[in-house]
Amino acid sequence: MASSQDRSQGRSGGIVSGGATEAVTFTGNRALQIEEPLIFEMGQPGRCGVDLPEPPKVKDRLNGLRRSGDIGLPGLSEPQVVQHYTRLSQKNYAIDMGVYPLGSCTMKHNPRLNEKVARLPGIGDLHPLQPVSTVQGALELIDRLAHWLKTLTGMPAVAMSPAAGAHGEMCGMMAIAAALEARGERAQRKVVLAPESAHGTNPATAAALGFTVKPIPANETGRVDLAALKAALGPDVAAIMLTNPNTCGLFESEIVEISTAVHAAGAYFYCDGANFNAIAGRVRPGDLGVDCMHINLHKTFSTPHGGGGPGAGPVVLSAALAPYAPYPWIVKDGETWRVAEDDAKVAGTPLGRLKAFHGQMGMFTRALAYMMSHGADGLKQASEDAVLSANYVMAALKDVMSPAFDGPCMHEALFDDSFLKDTGVSTLDFAKAMIDEGYHPMTMYFPLVVHGAMLIEPTESQAKEDLDLFLGALRSLAAKAKTGTAAEAFKAAPLYAPRRRLDETLAARKPILRWKPSNNPPETDPVKQAAE
Amino acid sequence: MRYLPLTDADRREMLGVIGARSVDELFRDVPESARLGAKIAGLPDHQGELEVERAFQAYAAKNLSPASVPFFIGAGAYRHHVPATVDYMIQRGEFLTSYTPYQPEITQGTLQYLFEFQTQITMLTGMDVANASMYDGSTGTSEAVLMANRVTRRHKALVSGGLHPQYRRIIETAAKWEGFVAVVGKPDVEGLEDLIAAVDKETSCVVVQNPSFFGHVRDFAKLAAACHAAGALLIVVVTEVVSLGLITPPGEMGADIVVCEGQSIGNGLGFGGPYVGLFATREKYMRQMPGRLVGETVDADGKRGFVLTLSTREQHIRREKATSNICTNAGLCALAFTVHLTLLGEAGFRRLAEINHAKASELADRVAAIPGVKLLNESFFNEFTVRLPKPAAPVVEALAARRILGGLPVSRLIPNDPSVENLLLLAATETATEYGMGPLVAALKEVL
Amino acid sequence: MADVKYSEEHEWIRVEGDTGTIGITQYAQEQLGDVVFVDVPAAGRKVAKGESVAVVESVKAASDIYAPVSGEVIESNAALADTPGDVNAEPMGKGWFFRIRMSDKGELAGLMDEAAYTAFVKSLG
C-alpha cells in the first residue's frame, strides 16, 4: 500500500466538506480561522526576535568541540512570533472558553490570581540551590501547603516532590515496596490488585516495580466486588490500588470494609486520588483506611492543565508508610526552616529520590493560592457544587441518554452507548458532533468496563444557565441520533472546527514526528496551496 | 465565593430536578463514620484576592530574590533572561487552560507547537526523533535508563561521576525499586573519567553528562563506539541546554538517547520546578520511547494537521506493558521553551551561547586570580569548579550574608565526602554583569 | 483448507511439512481495525507454545500474538514494516506474520480446524 493511497484513504472516511455553502477563499482562511504554517516554513536568515549584544571575543575553552554547521533553527521577528502563537492559540478549545466536561480530568476554572502570585519576585525567580537562609519564605510556603494537604486528607505525612499524578503513584508504590522490604516480605508479596476500571497508570506503575497486576471485577453497581476482593487477598498480595471516588464516578460505599480486609491480609491500600475533588473538605481519605494517595494539584486544586502539564503529584502517607518518604522534605528547627536532602542524618529509611530539587514549586504556589482563596468553607462548597452539577447532568439526561449506573454519582456522570443502539452513531461520532455545538467532548471509551463510555464532569465552575445550554445541546444531539437517519451527518462531524477528523491511521503507519523540508508535498502545503 | 457561580436558588432548583432534598443526600454512599458534618477543622475560611496576595508577598519578603543581588548559581538550573513575549504567550487562556490534545480537531494549536518543539529538539541535539517533553531533565534521565534496559534487554547501567548528583540518586532509586543495577562512578571532579574499559556485554547503557556537573566539556565519540561494539546505548545528559548553541551536539558524538533539562530556555528558575525535560533518540528506538508524541497527518479534507500518535506505547492502552507510566508531560513549559527558542532563532541562540561562554571565561579568570583559589577546568561552557583553600559551604553562607549568591558548595549535593568539601561551582550567564562579578570577587577575597 | 489450524487467540497456522506459517484471522483483523504496526520475531528465535512472540497494533489497541506451537522462527514477513495494512487486506495471505519450524507437531492437535473455529467465533456473538 503506497503512501499516496494512504492519503486518499484518509479522505475517503470523510463526507464531502461543506458543500455549496462553504466559501472558497484565496488564502484558505475562514475569517478568524487562519491557516498557519510551521515556524520552519516562515523563517528567513537575517531575522531575529531578540537583540543581544555582540559577544566579547574570548579564547574558546570548549575542548575543541565547537559546534560546526547550522542547527537549522528558523529566524523570525518578534511580531511574527506573536502572530504565530496567537493564531495557533485560536485553534484550541480551553476552559476559559466554556464547558470542558472531560471526565476524570477536572477542567475547573483556573484563577489568574494563582498565576500572579507564582510570578512574584522572591517566589518565581528563586534558585532551588540558594543557601537555605535565603529561601526561608519558600520553605515555609511548601510546609504550609503540606499542612493543608495533610489536614484535608487526614493523613500524617506528605511527600511533596512527585512531578505529576503518575509520578506520585510511583512514589506511593515505592513506599509500599519499601515498607514490605522492611518487613522482610517484599519477595513474597508480588501481587497488586486493581479494579478492571482502573486508570492505565495504575497497572503501568505496579508492573514497573515488578508487581503482577491482578484485576478485580466490579459488581452490578459499578463498585468493587467485595467478595471477589476478599477471595483474591492472601499472603502474596502487596497492595490494592483503588480510585475513590472510582472511575465510574461512584463512591466505593464499602470502602471501609475494603481497607479493613486489605489490612487484615497484611497488604496496603493505595488510593488513586485523581478524583479527590469530589470529596475535598467533606471526606478525609485518612478516615477510610488509606495508606497513601497522590493528589493531582492540577485537578483538585486548579493549577493549569497547560495543554498537558506541568502537573504536580504530592503523596500523602499513613503512619505506616511515612518513614519511607523520599527526599527532600522540609524541617523546622526552632524558628528556622531547612531541607532534608540526600544523605542527611534523618529518622526513617527514605526510599531515595524521585526528582531533582524540591518538587513543582510553581504548582505549589498556585495550589496554595487556590486553597487560601476558598478556605475550608469554600473547598467544601466547591466539592458539593461539583457533585451537585454532575447529578444534575445525570438527571437532566437520563431520559434521552443511558446512565451506566444508578445514582447518585459523585463529581462525574457516566453514560454508556446503549441509547445509540441501532442508530449507526458511535460514541466517537456523538462526541465529534459536540465539537460543532461549541463544546469539548466528554471523556470517551473510559472507563473500559462500560461499553462506549461517555464520562461527563461538569465541575463546580459552570453557571447553571451555561450547563442548561450544554444539556440542551446534548439532548438535541441524542434526539437527532435516535431518528436513525442522521448517522451520515454525525460521521461528517466536526464541520466547523479548525480541522475535520484527522487520519490517525496514516499518522501511525507512516510516523512523521518532525518537520523536514521534504515533508511537504505541495498538495498538502497550505502556503503553497494559497499561492496557486 | 468568587469562583463558584451557583446561587442558592440554582442549587435548590437543581436538587429539585435531581429529586434530592439536600446535597447531603448525594453523599449517601459515603460511610456514615467518614462523613464530616461541618467544614474541616484547622484551616481558615475563604479570603479575597487582596488578602491572599498579601500572604504571598509576605512569603516572598522572606526570600532573597536573585534579581536583586549578584548571582552565580547553576548546578542544573540556570538564570537566563526570558523575553516578555514568552510569559505573555503561555498565559493566553487557550494554551494555559487547555488539556492534553485528545481531540485534535480543536487542539491544533497545542499539537502544532508540540510538533515544532519536537523538531527543534531534534535539531539542537542532532538526533532523529524527540517526544513532546518529560517532567524535567532529572526524571527524563531515569526514563532513558529504563528505555535502554528495554531496548537491550539488559539490566546494568554505568553512571558517570560527572552526572548531576541528584540525577544519579534518581537512577539509584529506580534501580533499587524497579530492579536493575546502577554502577556509579566517583565524583569526576577533574573531568578525566574514562568509562570505556567498564563497558561490557551486560551493560545496557552508559550515562554521561555534557558539560559535566563540574563543568567539563567532553568528547564522547570513542565512548559511543565502545558502547555500540558491546551492544550498549550511550545516554548523554545536558543540564544546560544553551550549551548546544556552541558545543558539538550529542547526536554527532554517537549518542543513542539525549536528555536535556530545558529550563534555561523560556522557563524561570521557579525554585526548582516545573521545568521541562527534552528527550530525543534514534529513529530505530522510536517505539521504545516514553511520553507523548505528536505526528503529522491529514484531515478528512486532506489538509495538514497534527495528532497524538504511536499511543500504543502508552499506559492508557498498554497498561502494565506500557513503556512508562508517564501521562502528563510539561506542555506549558514546552510552550515557553519553543516560543523563546523561536524568538532566538539560529542567530540569537548561537549568540546567546557565545555570550554565556564569554561571561564565564571572564569570571573564571577573575576568580582563579584570587590567591589560594584553583580553577579545576581546562574546558567549560558557562559553569566551572574551583577549589578553595577552605570548605566551600561556610564561604557561600558568608557571601549570602553579604547579599551575594556566590555559587554552589559541591558538598550540598555530595555530602559527607571530604574530597569535594572545598569545591565551589560557579556559573555565569548573559545575566552576569560587572556590577555582579566585581562584588563577588571582592567578597571572596575578604571571606577566604 | 485442511492444513490450516486456528487458535482461540485468533491466530491461524498453515502447515506444510514441519513448517508452519502464522498470522491472525479475518475476525481478529476486524476487531483490531486498521493495523498500523506489526512487530514480528527475528529469524532464529526459539519460541515456546503460548509465548508472546509478536505484537500487532492499531491506532488505539495493541495485541500480543502468542506462538500457537513451539519451534524456531525461520522467516518473518519484513514487508509488513512498510505495509501493515496487508494484515487488514489479506490476513491469511500477504498479511502473514512469520514462519516457524515446528519442534512438536503433536501440539497441532490442540488447535481448531476451520469448522470448529467458525463455530467458536459465532459463539462470541
Low-confidence stretches of chain A: 1-21, 526-532
Q: Please name the two chains that share the biggest interface, counting residues whose Cβ lies under 8 Å from a Cβ on the partner chain.
A: A-B, 219 and 214 residues
Q: Can you identify the CATH superfamily of the domain at 116-371 in chain A?
A: Type I PLP-dependent aspartate aminotransferase-like (Major domain)
Number of domains of chain B: 2
Q: End-to-end span of chain A in angstroms?
A: 29 Å
Residue share in helix of chain B? 25-40%
CATH topology heading of the domain at 116-371 in chain A: Aspartate Aminotransferase, domain 2
Number of discrete helical segments of chain A: 15
Number of helices of chain B: 14
Order of helices and strands of chain A: HHHHEHEHEHEHEEHEEEHEEHEEHHHH
Topology:
The complex is a heterotrimer of chains A (532), B (448) and C (125).
Chain A: H1 3-12, H2 78-89, H3 112-118, H4 136-153, E1 157-159, H5 165-182, E2 191-195, H6 201-208, E3 212-216, H7 226-232, E4 237-243, H8 255-264, E5 268-272, E6 292-294, H9 297-300, E7 315-317, E8 329-333, E9 336-340, H10 361-397, E10 402-403, E11 413-416, H11 427-436, E12 443-444, E13 454-456, H12 464-482, H13 487-492, H14 504-509, H15 526-531
Parallel strand pairs in A: 2-3, 2-4, 4-5, 5-6
Antiparallel strand pairs in A: 1-7, 6-7, 8-9, 10-11, 11-13, 12-13
Helix pairs in contact in A: 3-10, 4-10, 5-6, 10-12
Chain B: H1 8-18, H2 23-26, H3 49-61, H4 84-90, H5 93-96, H6 108-125, E1 129-130, H7 137-152, E2 156-159, H8 165-178, E3 181-184, E4 203-209, H9 221-229, E5 233-238, H10 250-253, E6 257-261, E7 277-281, E8 294-298, E9 304-308, H11 315-318, H12 331-368, E10 374-375, E11 383-387, H13 392-401, E12 408-409, E13 423-427, H14 434-447
Helix pairs in contact in B: 4-12, 6-12, 7-8
Chain C: E1 4-6, E2 11-16, E3 19-24, H1 26-32, E4 35-39, E5 46-47, E6 52-58, E7 62-66, E8 71-76, H2 86-89, E9 98-102, H3 114-123
Antiparallel strand pairs in C: 1-2, 2-3, 3-9, 4-6, 5-8, 6-7, 8-9
Descriptive keywords:
heterotrimer; B: 448 residues; alpha/beta; Aspartate Aminotransferase, domain 2; 2 domains; 7-stranded mixed beta sheet; 4-stranded antiparallel beta sheet; 13 strands; C: 125 residues; alpha+beta; OB fold (Dihydrolipoamide Acetyltransferase, E2P); 6-stranded antiparallel beta sheet; 9 strands
